[in-house]
Structure formats: C-alpha cells, structure tokens
C-alpha cells in the first residue's frame, strides 16, 4: 500500500492541495489521511473509489498511475516555470537599470540647472 500512498501524495501535490484540503474533501481527519499516504492504513474499495473520483481518475487509473511518467511531466513543467521566472527576473533587472539611468539623467539635469 505504500506505493499507492506515494501515488496519492504525488497527485495531491500536483493539484496543489494540502493534506488538510484532501482530508476535508474526503470527510476524514488529517491524521487518517496521512496514514493513507504513508501506507499505514489499508484503503477499502469505497475509500479507493472516493480518492480516485477526487483526482478525476478511475480506480484502475489510480492503481496504475505511473509515478515516473508523472514525475517527468512535473519536472518538465517545473523547468519551464523556472525558465519563465528567470526571463522575468532578467526583465526586472533591465528595467531597474533603466530606472537608475533615468534617475542619473534627472540628477545631472537638476545639478546643471541649479
């Protein structure tokens, strides 16, 4: 069951949900959900169906969920997000340089006119 718990945790992370979020959606306590993710608690069919539905999967899809493929997709998405973040960071740096240049021009003009 630990493998299934890892799959559930990965799906939860991909959805940006906390353990509390999922526990509320399943109408169980946070510790009870934590035990599902860690594999301490066996999941009955009813709970398995409830979890699959929560992630918009069939029970078969949930059980066959491939961590490696999903992790590759997650890493690819993360890499793309990091690239976009770096581009935006570079844009901010360029804008900061322009602000400094304009400030210096204004300062020189002010000194010249004083």
From TrEMBL:
Keywords: Coiled coil, DNA-binding. Residues 8-62 form the HTH cro/C1-type domain. Pfam families: HTH_3. SMART domains: HTH_XRE. Residues 68-105 form a coiled coil. The keyword Coiled coil applies. It comes from the Bacteria. This is Helix-turn-helix transcriptional regulator. It comes from Olivibacter ginsenosidimutans.
